[in-house]
């Protein structure tokens, strides 16, 4: 799917910058960290590209906030969201949702679909904060027994009934009701918790009359303030458990819920990939250090539906590997030797030459295709054709352990296709014209004929 910029975004040429990046002059605070923690303290060795991209986030935000004439640009920075990455999701940075939507229909559709959930989360957060505000340490410990006890009890009962009847996150409604029924029953069946303690017989009758579900308000109204405090504490705990479940478990399992929480979770990627991604989003520059990083950036762009960036990465990988293979063929270098040299250059680097981010691209592309469950069709076709065209048994034996069943099947079919194209001409023809095929037939086989 091709991408075109929306009308309010100026069209810009794709800039590819492989030059080294310099550190910004002033330290940038890490998003999601405390105000006293620098980005270097929170994440040692944090990729320069990520820092540079965040600098531009701040710069663009300042322009958008103070320049009325740039109203369309300002609208691109209204909704900051968190990108959380790393195996433990312990690193995060900010990206602006409206800007990201411009490059990805996938992100746009996902966050638009998550709006009802986002509203429900906001309502749930408001309820949770209101409940928390009635308890220590937000309020003094005597709020349910001091001068303001009546007002506090009234607020607490209102919150209990609201959560019991209409909790915004409907999938948790049953759990909340169970907790509130249990907590209310515990104090309702204790005569010492009643404003006017009933007799034992009267208590049993009241238990039947005041149904724990249908008459929860009636039950609460006959109880002392400390009984209401007991119930509101239990409500506060279940709301905290729901919050933890939603943010730490459900969001990891459901992209829609993560989007509703204004988060994009990328546990499979690190700063070396997220940094160049943000740099491309905000600056239009593709800055990578090596072909492996380019492969990872391609995968991230594919996952987030940023097709322009994915196609750019794919074109760089394809062109680099194809050029290297063609050059090796013209110089009489076998594919196996080329791969071995490519592996060696990945280890040794450019050895004093100007840094080339596509050093070792052939082996990187081969490994990426052979180990990927769903490799890009363009790269997959190139790798299969190169392996089949080499007709090298040793190379095939070396690569086979890494091949998936599908790739191995394609290589076999490509080899069979080449064998079927072998044509033998009459014996009176010269030796150089006796065989016309990409895979040569050994001399012994020719003499027997």
Automatic annotation (TrEMBL):
Species in which this protein is naturally found: Melanomma pulvis-pyrius CBS 109.77
Residues in BTB domain copies: 251-317
UniProt region (Disordered), positions on chain: 1-27
UniProt name for this protein: BTB domain-containing protein
Matches recorded under InterPro entries: BTB/POZ_dom, SKP1/BTB/POZ_sf
Pfam families: BTB
């Amino acid at each position: 799917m091709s991408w075109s910029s929306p009308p309010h975004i100026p069209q810009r040429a794709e800039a590819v910058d492989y030059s080294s990046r310099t550190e910004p002059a002033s330290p940038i605070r890490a998003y999601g960290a405390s105000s006293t923690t620098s980005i270097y303290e929170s994440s040692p060795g944090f990729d320069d590209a990520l820092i540079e991209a965040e600098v531009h986030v701040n710069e663009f935000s300042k322009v958008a906030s103070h320049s009325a004439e740039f109203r369309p640009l300002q609208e691109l920075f209204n909704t900051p969201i968190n990108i959380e990455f790393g195996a433990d999701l312990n690193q995060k940075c900010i990206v602006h949702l409206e800007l990201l939507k411009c490059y990805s229909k996938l992100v746009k559709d996902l966050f638009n679909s998550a709006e009802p959930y986002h509203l429900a989360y906001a309502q749930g957060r408001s309820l949770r904060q209101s409940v928390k505000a009635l308890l220590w340490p937000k309020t003094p410990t005597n709020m349910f027994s001091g001068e303001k006890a009546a007002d506090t009890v009234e607020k607490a009962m209102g919150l209990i009934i609201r959560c019991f009847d209409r909790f915004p996150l409907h999938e948790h409604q049953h759990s909340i009701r169970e907790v509130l029924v249990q907590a209310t029953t515990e104090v309702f069946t204790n005569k010492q918790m009643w404003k006017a303690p009933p007799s034992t017989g009267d208590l049993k009758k009241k238990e039947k009359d005041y149904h724990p579900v249908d008459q929860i308000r009636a039950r609460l109204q006959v109880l002392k303030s400390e009984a209401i405090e007991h119930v509101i504490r239990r409500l506060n705990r279940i709301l905290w458990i729901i919050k933890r479940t939603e943010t730490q478990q459900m969001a990891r399992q459901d992209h829609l819920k993560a989007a509703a929480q204004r988060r994009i979770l990328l546990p499979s990627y690190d700063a070396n990939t997220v940094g160049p991604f943000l740099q491309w989003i905000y600056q239009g520059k593709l800055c990578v250090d090596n072909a492996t990083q380019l492969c990872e950036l391609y995968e991230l762009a594919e996952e987030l539906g940023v097709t322009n960036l994915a196609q750019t990465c794919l074109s760089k990988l394809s062109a680099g590997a194809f050029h290297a293979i063609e050059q090796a063929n013209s110089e009489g270098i076998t594919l196996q030797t080329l791969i071995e040299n490519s592996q060696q250059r990945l280890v040794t680097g450019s050895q004093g030459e100007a840094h080339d981010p596509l050093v070792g691209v052939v082996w990187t592309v081969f490994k990426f295709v052979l180990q990927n469950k769903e490799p890009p069709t363009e790269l997959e076709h190139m790798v299969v054709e190169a392996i089949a065209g080499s007709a090298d048994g040793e190379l095939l034996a070396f690569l086979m352990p890494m091949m998936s069943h599908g790739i191995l099947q394609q290589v076999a079919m490509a080899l069979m296709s080449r064998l079927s194209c072998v044509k033998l001409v009459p014996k009176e023809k010269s030796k150089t014209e006796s065989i016309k095929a990409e895979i040569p037939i050994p001399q012994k086989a020719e003499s027997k004929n």
